[in-house]
Amino acid sequence: MTELYRHLRDFLTHCLIAIFLLSLAGPLLADSAATDPGDQHTVIHKDTTDDADSAPSEAAATATATFAPSLDEETEIPLANAVAAAAGLAEPLELLGTEIMPGTSQRLSWSATELFEGVSVSTPVLVVNGALPGPTLCLTAAVHGDELNGIEMVRRVMHDLTPAKVSGAVIGVPIVNVQGFRRGSRYLPDRRDLNRYFPGNPRGSAAARIAHSFFTNVIAKCDALVDLHTGSFERTNLPQIRADLRNPDAVTLTEGFGSMVILHSTPTAGTLRYAATEAGIPAVTLEAGGPSQLELSEVKVGVKGIQTLIHTLGMVRKTRLWGDPEPVYYRSSWVRADNGGILLADVSLGSTVRKGDLLGTITDPMNNARSELRSPYSGRIIGMARNQVVMPGFATFHIGIQTDEPPTGEVDDDTLGNEIGDSDDYVDGMSE
Ligand SMILES: [Zn+2]
Fold it and tell me: Which domain CATH number covers 350?
């Protein structure tokens, strides 16, 4: 039983007690059930390990761990029924200087105080404050300005919510890095990656100031966070949830998404996921597709996953559940090109591969020399480069490796971390 669920269970218990008392003593006792669901004291384990995504090479293991989805006895939450009976206890949500009454939705705007051109650039913050009490779930997209799929996911999820039927609140920020988005760029105008500066610093660099403003004004209001990303630099990802699976609250969130691939990934310092987790806000990353495109099938998978999560958290009653088991990948590794040239893939996203299988070829366009990329592991293609010209060392295929050992609280092996002199995902952009 994780802290998040303990909190939800306690909340449900309050509601049931309230219903019981109300049935005995009438509506005068209603105030006694007004438990604020935001008062949880979530315990988050401090993460001190390197980012698994960025490890140049990791050992393979072959056993299988099958993921049990959300709706088992342990995690089923009839919270929606309880809060429906306790209607009237929802509270106004204060955000960005505005009070959003229960049962209403609003479009607010956030702008960082310090911007490059000296003019204020604002971005929409969509809020649905449900008529019924519950947690506040936040959805953020386009922290990298060229990652478009998440923008459309947030739009679809937010506009599908009916405030009168929501328990708790959903805050959606479709475009966090509006300056990168306007230029079609992953980065801020000074080439800084905003997702390496959270939680930010009000007296730091421009990126640190923007991060600080966003974190304190928006993220601090969240009880849980889903940060939406895509692959980077002409790479694309199978829709997947990345989470630190050593963190019980993060595991709870991953269990809510239904049929999505789960990848264990310790968050890189400075990412929104890392900073939120450090601040006691359970957070996961949803990766789907590649940058600079709108990919409808990936968008639909992401929307379905988020809607399933909202249901699983007891915030909306839905009948369309999505719960077929998907494997959990506790390990993953990128296969890098040893030669430069034209990369042509022989596998596709989601393909299952065995050790030694052909992944793709790299052909030198000048001398016609051709080399093969073969899989060092048995696993599944969870991310890959689009066909393109690559340099030696370019990360080409991301293989999810099933193991029978869940991640522990310690780094397994020093050799699995970043090698000295090998630049990590900051350059490769393979982390969110
Ligand atoms: Zn990203």
Answer: 2.40.50.100
Tens digit of each residue's pLDDT (9 = 90 or more) over 32-59: 333 333 333 333 333 333 333 333 322 2
The answer to whether residue 42 is domain-embedded is: no
Round to whole Å and give the CA distance between 61 and 404: 8
Residue 178 maps to which CATH number? 3.40.630.10
Q: Are both 369 and 220 inside the same structural domain? A: no
For residue 336, report the distance from its CA to the centre of ligand 1, in Å: 20
Is residue 12 a part of any domain in this protein?
Answer: no
The domain in which residue 206 lies consists of: 52-312
- How far does residue 15's CA lie from ligand 1's centre (Å)? 39
- Give tens-digit pLDDT for 75-112: 444 444 444 444 457 899 999 999 999 999 999 999 98
Gap from CA of 429 to ligand 1 centroid (Å) = 8
Q: What is the pLDDT of residues 380-427, one digit of tens each?
A: 999 999 999 999 999 999 999 988 777 765 433 332 233 323 334 444
What's the pLDDT tens digit per position in 303-329?
999 999 999 999 998 756 676 767 889
The SS3 assignment for 136 reads strand
Question: Is residue 428 in some structural domain?
Answer: no
Residue 151 alpha carbon to ligand 1 centre in Å: 12
Distance in Å, CA 176 to ligand 1 centroid: 11
Per the structure, the count of domains in the chain is 2
Q: Exposed, middle or buried by CB within 10 Å (0-12, 13-18, 19+), for 294?
A: exposed
* C-alpha of residue 291 to centroid of ligand 1, in Å: 8
Q: What is the largest CA-CA distance in the chain?
A: 87
What is the CB neighbour count within 10 angstroms for residue 415? 11
| Boundary-marking domain end, from 287, 312, 337 | 312
User: Is there a single domain that holds both residue 251 and residue 360?
Assistant: no
Whole-angstrom distance, CA of residue 319 vs CA of residue 348:
32
User: Are 276 and 342 in the same domain?
Assistant: no
Cα-to-centroid distance, 370 and ligand 1 (Å)? 32
Token pair, residue 34, equals 């007004």
**Ligand 1 center from residue 371 Cα (angstroms):** 30
CA–CA separation, 44 and 11 (whole Å): 20
- Rounded distance from Cα 367 to ligand 1 centre (Å): 36
